Amino acid sequence: MAIAGLATDIADTDAYESAVEHLRQARVVLPTFAQLADPATIPQSIAGETETVQVGAPNAANLFRVHWYNDDAGVGRSGVPGYVELPAALTGVKARIAVAFGNRFPMIAAHKVLPAYACLAPRIVTGRFDPARHKAVWPSTGNYCRGGVAISRILGCRGVAVLPEGMSEERFQWLREWVTEPDDIVRTPGSESNVKEIYDKCAELAADPTNVILNQFSEFGNYLVHYQCTGRALEAVFEDMRAGAPTLELAAFVAGTGSAGTLGAGDYLKEALGARIVAVEPTECPTMLYNGYGEHNIQGIGDKHIPFIQNVMNMDMVVGVSDDACDRLNVLFNSDEGRSYLEGRRRIDPAIIARLDNFGLSSIANVLAAIKTARRLDLGPNDVIVTVATDGAGMYVSESDKTVAAHFPGGFDAVAAGETFAQHLLGTDGDHVLELTHADRERIFNLGYYTWVEQQGVALEDFDARRDQRFWKGLRDLMPEWDGMIDDFNRRTGVNLPG
Ligand SMILES: Cc1ncc(COP(=O)(O)O)c(C=O)c1O
């Protein structure tokens, strides 16, 4: 298997010409990655058109909303990405923890539509994906495939979601409404950490040459778009905080690893602002911490392997968080009893409480990992930790019901709220926190060998190349090159206004 998704040459001019014609008919303009990193550069005519379109609609204008700067109302743009800074009364630490909202991304209310676009767009403009003929196959634990299906629908091609059958009902419900054929939802055995089963299914689907597999775990478009767009968005969040307090420093960037795409933002933030990079995983599936495995419910992270696009040798810490804590805090943050406890007993600002529904399960995991990081490093009021809420609580209503049924037989009352807060927020401990030595990084890096070289057939040379930071720095020229190709492609379709 060659390294996928790094090409900048046109592989097949017929496919390219067909894609131009197809997207001309579909009235699609492809945004450049520079525009998605800095949406202020989107032409006013397109931005104005986008504002007339519903944020949830499968409309080509929504490609220009695939960025971090959508406003609260789901209409226009905000100057700074939406985020919340969590008070010490909630986190129990003095460090300032800021969480950027991923649920403002269009169509799927999760940031995974960004990597989906970044994996497909380069294929289109290099003649490697013909929307008139190919099906885009999106292996995922739920959000990436929703993003992929949304993008596919806009482009007028088939999008196939491959995901474990155990993922949240909200994900399947969404998919049923968006796929063009029921067969385009492919359920694989298991749940969150059963990625091997997803790969096996993709290998089977790849036998059909009209299926193009867009494997987020090994596509560098995923890494690069987070490096460029998420990295710069989080820098803007930090700068917004620093505008009011010039002595602030960015101590750390924290992110759960599913495909490890989001973690790519850490490479940017380390270079630009010296942030430490902290990777998060479930303690029930502690692959990076202990070479471990297991089932868990932090949907989206902890996939029992080391993704090919994870820049392991640049990581600084690994933090394990329990899925039980995330499940229970999900109930605390999203129930009336939990909210009145936070306001009445803990005196937390109702405006902050109102924003906690922007956190899905992996977002809560990121917050808990940020608290653990602050504790381990003794961070103080001058230190900022930034992280992301990939999706919001809306994707986990059914999970909240399950948690109440399983753990709070008397219902979730004030006592349960107090217990949950005390145990899982105030009582957040420093367990399962690893400050990485070179040997630790080597161990985690080497774990990837079994997936990528032995199982997926990557050449050893390509696998090993990623130890060296020059490999990662070398990738960064790809985005401007693809942007040039996107501009050419748009000129060829001649579409000026999407829709
Ligand atoms: C809800 C959720 N959180 C976190 C992640 C992990 O993000 P990444 O794949 O960029 O590591 C995902 C990935 O699908 C996700 O869906």
Structure, described:
By secondary structure, the protein is α/β, with parallel strands linked by helices. It folds into two domains: 13-76 and 106-219, Rossmann fold; 83-105 and 221-435, 3-Layer(aba) Sandwich (Rossmann fold). The protein has helices spanning 13-25, 33-37, 44-51, 88-91, 113-125, 143-155, 169-178, 195-206, 220-244, 264-273, 287-290, 323-334, 336-344, 350-353, 361-376, 397-407, 414-426, 438-455, 460-465, 469-475, 478-493, and strands at 83-86, 96-101, 135-139, 158-164, 185-188, 211-213, 249-256, 276-282, 317-321, 383-389, 433-435. The strands form two sheets. The chain has a seven-stranded mixed beta sheet with strand order 1-2-10-7-8-9-11, sandwiched between helices. Helix 5 crosses helix 9 and helix 12 crosses helix 15 (361-376). The model has no long low-confidence stretch (mean pLDDT 96).
Overall average pLDDT: 96
Number of helices: 21
Radius of gyration: 21 Å
Structural class: alpha/beta
How many β strands by DSSP?
A: 11
Count of all domains: 2
Q: Which second-level CATH architecture of the largest domain applies?
A: 3-Layer(aba) Sandwich
**CA distance, first residue to last residue:** 38 Å
Bound molecules: pyridoxal-5'-phosphate
The major sheet is characterized as: 7 strands, mixed
- Which CATH class of the largest domain? Alpha Beta
> Strand portion, in percent?
5-15%
Q: Give me the CATH fold name of the largest domain.
A: Rossmann fold
Shape annotation? globular
In the predicted model, the low-confidence regions spanning at least 5 consecutive residues are: none
Query: How are the strands of the largest sheet arranged?
Result: 1-2-10-7-8-9-11
